[in-house]
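Researcher: Sequence of tRNA 2'-phosphotransferase 1 follows. Predict its structure.
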Amino acid sequence: MAAASVLIPLSAINQNGGTLPPSALVQHSPRHGRSRAASMKGKNRYNVLENRDVAISKAVSFVLKRAVLQSDVEEESEEEEEESTDRLVSTDDGWVPVSDLLQHSRITDLGTTLQDLRRIESVGSKARFELRQRPGSDAEATESFQIRGTHKRDSVQAPILEGEPLKADAEDLPEFVVYETSYEAYPHILASDGIQLAAGAKYITFTPVTIDADGSESRPNRTSDADIGIWVHLRTALESEPSIVWQRTAAGGIATANEVPKSLWKKAVARRQDIGLLFEDGEVRKEVPEGLRGKGSKGKAKKGKGSFKSRGEDASDSASDE
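Model: Prediction complete. Tokens:
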């Protein structure tokens, strides 16, 4: 049976600021304009349904990306300094005191503690930052730690180079240098025939690796969690491509401002053991599984199916969707 119409006097609407009162038949207020969820106000700037660790990681990443370099602060005028009062100050290689970070409004809104940051970093998959402790300091004290953005390195500045360019006859050369990248970026690097400078970057940074007598790897830094490592035999690269200038960085890495062509790649290896060897001695051994390539890495669709081919197989189909 159809419900009877309910007439609402115009005076009732005017008294309510132009908004309809609750229906006599359906006991809830009609939505006018924005939904209740969209109009909720509060200190937390993130979706309340989002995992708290992810929310903290995003907030930390946001703040670190906008940190001001100490060298820039020293050159700022008083007016410019007032405009950047809500920004943190970082070292030239991106490190910020954790004690300063935890006082930023975006971080305090989430009730973030040092324990939260250490837990998120230990998980790895949720972390967009890395921590380091001053040698000999209290492991429980906030003042003992520094933090900077990691993995994609959006907030990390150009590496500081030191020493003279490396020579092929040097005795202390690392055996290999490894360029670390993601599953999404690797197909683009492979199709471009070499490792190139990222937009806005001055150098390409590699991790030096030495293979010990027992076959284990020695690296100056902690174990990497990058998706893929592209290996270059450094002495061979110096001998065969003398135009490429390699230099050490203050952080213990190896950097170059030149493109590193595929002809110098010894191998490319995925971190996941079920994927393993992708490239070796000039030949593609395996492709990155389609589900890991990301939206822009599948190449042009062909008869309803996306495929990626190296430039050597079919140059017409290797363009990626960007």
